[in-house]
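Fill in residues.
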């Protein structure tokens, strides 16, 4: 199998590259070569996605059985890439997101749920992260690829991805905070269901789909109801060896205190469908999600061994300051503690 991976130097991309090399595939990467060097077993072609001459030179290095885009987010750029590479590959795979669904996180979603309106030719003129624009931009990317590849395209739409190498900062923040010990502010109810998926499981399942010549769209998430918020935080405490005590504050009270959902307390969201992504289609196709505790333990090991995430503006968004947490812990009525 000859595979061209667009990107491949960050979080999901690194996991995909590692898995493809383990399979014995012939792996080519195309990126600017700024974030890391190509791992042993992969060939790096340096270039800029937004320079036509670079894309033409890249296409001349084909053909490939499949192109896998793990980083695209600007429809006009992704569409131009797909157009130039169409003669050089049989199959195009795009790493999309749960954010393409118009109803998420307000209602449960599956592959038939309505998407945001997207423009396959849009270039917003900025490359900065914008959470409000992210979903529609990814829809535009899907439309641009579908225009060039039709039913030869595959779209994988993961929920929140965790694991070693995470650069967004959700799980690393919780591990760091809980490792410090003391009373840790946590959003009740502890039994809230969550569905994060390990980056290595995303990579493995995506390449399994590639090997099977799958097309269409697949949601990727852990099974609904398998894991809870308490499972996540208790796993963090266990793997760090911390004596932290969780203070489960009522989420309605946290909202009144203007605690930012999703970021100040990472992965916390009050909307009932935030963790209601139906990934049954993927599970029937072979998706297997490792235990959440394993993801937590391996991420802690990666951090302890000196792992450093790729620098990204989103990292600073996550986590509550020590001063703000102390203020809220002091103000929380009755301050109930969970000693175990």
């Amino acid at each position: 199998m000859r595979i061209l991976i667009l990107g491949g130097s960050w979080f999901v991309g690194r996991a995909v590259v590692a898995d493809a090399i383990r399979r014995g595939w012939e792996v080519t990467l195309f990126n600017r070569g700024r974030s890391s060097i190509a791992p042993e077993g992969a060939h790096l072609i340096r270039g800029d996605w937004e320079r036509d001459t670079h894309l033409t030179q890249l296409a001349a290095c084909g053909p490939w059985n499949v192109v896998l885009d793990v980083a695209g987010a600007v429809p006009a750029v992704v569409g131009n890439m797909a157009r130039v590479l169409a003669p050089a590959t049989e199959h195009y795979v795009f790493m999309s997101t749960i954010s393409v669904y118009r109803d998420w996180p307000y209602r449960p979603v599956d592959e038939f749920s309505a998407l945001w309106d997207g423009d396959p030719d849009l270039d917003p003129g900025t490359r900065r992260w914008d959470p409000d624009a992210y979903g529609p931009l990814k829809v535009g990317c899907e439309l641009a690829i579908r225009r060039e590849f039709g039913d030869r395209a595959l779209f994988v739409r993961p929920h929140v991805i965790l694991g070693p190498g995470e650069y967004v900062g959700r799980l690393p923040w919780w591990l760091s905070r809980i490792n410090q010990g003391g009373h840790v502010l946590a959003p009740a109810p502890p039994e809230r269901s969550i569905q994060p998926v390990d980056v290595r499981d995303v990579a493995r399942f995506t390449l399994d789909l590639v090997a099977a010549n799958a097309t269409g769209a697949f949601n990727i998430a852990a099974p609904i109801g398998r894991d809870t918020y308490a499972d996540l935080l208790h796993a963090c405490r266990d793997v760090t060896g911390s004596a932290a005590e969780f203070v489960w504050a009522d989420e309605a009270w946290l909202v009144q205190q203007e605690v930012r959902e999703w970021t100040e307390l990472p992965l916390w969201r009050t909307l009932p469908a935030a963790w209601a992504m139906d990934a049954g289609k993927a599970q029937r196709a072979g998706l297997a999600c490792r235990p959440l505790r394993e993801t937590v333990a391996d991420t802690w090991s990666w951090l302890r061994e000196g792992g450093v995430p790729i620098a990204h503006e989103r990292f600073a968004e996550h986590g509550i300051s020590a001063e703000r947490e102390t203020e809220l812990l002091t103000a929380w009525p009755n301050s109930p503690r969970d000693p175990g």
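The first helix runs from residue 11 to 22.
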